[in-house]
Every structure is written in C-alpha cells, then in structure tokens.
Amino acid sequence: MNTQKKVALVTGASSGIGEAAAKQLLTLGYTVYGTSRRGAEAGERSFPLIALDVTDDLSVEAAIAQLLQREGRIDLLVNNAGVGVTGAAEESSIEQVHALFETNFHGVVRVTNAVLPIMRKQGSGRILNIGSGLGLIPAPFNAYYSATKHALEGYSESLDHEVRGFGVRVVVIEPGATRTSFETSTVASDRQLADYDAIRAKYLVAYEQAIATAGTAQGVAETIALAARAKNPKLRYPSGKDAKQGAFARRFLPRALFDKVLHKQFGLA
C-alpha cells in the first residue's frame, strides 16, 4: 500500500501496543489519529487522540464522524482497544464475561461497522484486528480472554471474504507475551475459589517467567506496519518468537504431545 497521505485510526492508543503502532505508522507517512476513552485528556502525544469508548454506540459514531469531517477518508483501522481477565473459567461471573466480550469483541465489531461504509465507498481500506497468540493456543487461567480472541479470529476471516470485493482487506495480528501496561492492568476473576489456589500459583510463576523474556510493544508495532503495507496481506501475522513457535506447534504437533508441552510449561498435572 502506498502510505502517502493515507489516514490511519488506532484504537486504544494512549499506551502500549496502540501507542507504539501509532508512532510507527507516523514514521511511514500516515496521518494518524489515536483513540482513548478520555481523548485528549489522556495526555499529549505525537498524534491527536480522539475520545472513543468502544463499548458505546454513540461514542463510536461520534468519533468516526469527527475523523471523517477532519480528513474525509479512513484508509487503515487498527482495532487495538482491549482488556484482560485472568482466572479459572468457573471463577468469573457471567457479568464479568459479558464485560470482557463487550470490549474485546463487540467493541471491534462496533468500530469496524462504523468504518466499513467509508472504506466501501472509497473502494479501498485495510482493517487490522489485534488478536493474540491465545486466539490460537488457549492457556489455562485465560479461558474467556482466549475466547474473545478466538471469536476475533473467526470474525476476521469471515469478514475478509465478504469485503475483499470492495477493495478492503482484514488481517489479524497475533502478539505473543508482550511487556506493556496491559499486563499490569489485567484484572483477576471476580469470584476466586480456593480449590484453584495451588495450580494458580504454578501458573503465575510460569506467567512471570514468560513476561520476563517477553517481546516489546515496538516489536508488535513493526508487525502491524508490515501487515499495513503488504500488497497481498496474509490473514494472520504472529508477532514475537513465542507466538510464531506456538502457531507452528499447534499446527504440526499431535494433540497429546502439544498438551504435554503446554502442561509442563504451566506446571499442571
């Protein structure tokens, strides 16, 4: 894609992967707008921040209308806004699960549906959905976060088939473990059970080890830039050594061997 004067919108751009992606796209010549729930109140950046809450229909509509009024087009959408929950599957209330899907999946749908009419009218556009390595390899104590990212995988692949004829492509970026503020802001399940305490402790040790050697937001931003500029984009772009190794293992290892490796990694029986 020729990036000259093209307009990019990055959701969840006040920190972490979103902020790194916005800065990377700036260096490639894009006119970049980021979003956060607080908008400009989130602090000064090298790109404008528009107020946008992906869980609110009116907020999404207003933000996209504001950007369209300013620039007249949107060429690249990076759906990055997301939240995390850790805990055993039965430890989260249905309300917590609903809230997680409202941001991680329904939020992507809201923003995408607001942008697609613009891209269809232009006859061009690219949508990059920030998934996760956990969208391919569900890890223990991440059932619902993994579920939101699995949903994003299926949604993105279906959508790409539907909009390709309009000159629009859809891609999933699949980061592995990444050192960002997202990891420290991930919340625990809201009704923890003592029965899981022993294996939870083992999981947390493995998790801390993974984060200690994790990739950076800049590394993911470079993968985003690669997918944004690719003439013939792939559907999936794993980002980081662990994500690439995990995708390979999931595809080629027998299930029993894959499970054995996963259980050993997380200290499970």
From TrEMBL:
User: Among its keywords, does the record have Chaperone?
Assistant: no
Domain of life of the native organism: Bacteria
Please give the coiled-coil regions recorded for this protein.
none
What Pfam family is a match for this entry? Answer: adh_short
Enumerate the GO terms in the molecular function aspect: oxidoreductase activity
Keyword annotations for this protein, in alphabetical order, are: Oxidoreductase
User: Which family does the similarity line name?
Assistant: Belongs to the short-chain dehydrogenases/reductases (SDR) family.
Question: What PANTHER family has UniProt attached to this entry?
Answer: SHORT CHAIN DEHYDROGENASE (PTHR43976), SHORT-CHAIN DEHYDROGENASE_REDUCTASE FAMILY PROTEIN (PTHR43976:SF16)
What NCBIfam families does UniProt report for this protein, alphabetically? PRK06179.1
Report what the protein is called: SDR family NAD(P)-dependent oxidoreductase
- Name the source organism: Rhizobium quercicola
